[in-house]
Amino acid sequence: VPRIDLVKNIIHDCIALAIVTFAISLSLAKIFAKKHKYRIKPNQELIALGTANTIASFFACYPCSASLSRSSVLERTGGKTQIAGIVSSAIILVVLLFLGPLLYDLPKCILSCVILVALKTMFIQIKDMVTAWRMSRCEGVIWLVTFLAVVFLGVDIGLIVGVIFSLIVVLIRFITPHSTLLGTLPFTEIYVDLKHFTEAKEITGMKIYQYSSALFFLNRDHFKEDILRSTINMKPDDVVEGNFKTANFVHTVIVDCSPISYVDSSGVDTLCEVIETFKELSIRCYLCSCPTSVLNMFERTSFFDRIPPKFSAIFPSVHDAVIYSTQV
Fold it and tell me: Which distant-in-sequence residues (6+ apart) come within 8 Å of 274 by Cβ?
């Protein structure tokens, strides 16, 4: 009969152990799946681990998980199916029962050589840090922080540190996302980033602004400050103080909403505030390329009734908004 009184003493270790075993098993599965070009299902791996540990708990067994060293040895020796694991377990059982005394005097460093040789390809994966750093500094930092945390704090705490740090990086990206101004390529209806395409030109009197993130309560202030600074080189305080000099040369601001996958109620309020701010400056603000989820949110929050019709509208594409602006 399980001793319920021990639960409070081991629950924290059990949770950490469950996370670590699943993370290690899934990581190994992904490594070998990538190498041998087959797909894995994380849910299937989770069910398999849960079932195995549930059954093993009735026989006082240790928690089971994937073994980095044994998996590497089996893979290097050509193991393909679960039969290889059964054969490997049988050999280990024979060694423990009958050949153990013969290996008693063998130094552990000699036995460890077998594991080190099998793990050689795993150690080479440290090169992935260089690749991750070249592709994205954020990914490189996440890789390095997780690696150092696992080395110095242990696998369980290290993985938790890595997960928390990754969530912090994702949160920072949401709060301060990338934004840019778009311009049109000559003789086309294509609008691209002005920073990356030198051939692109701005349309006189217009600013086409693109915000590459969802718009919600965490980044609403950043969105408002960024769109005013990028389009008319102003801050929200300048509007309050009545400093409108920098906005004299812009008559239309077009917001490309195609990267905005989600807008919450506070984001809708922010859009209304921005449109109202541009109205005070006699600048029209048009939204275009809104995803269906964003349009549905506009309907639920009565957004269309809250915006001034003469200074704002929604268009299916950037080019439609540009054509309309030139005709008004």
Answer: 223, 224, 227, 228, 285
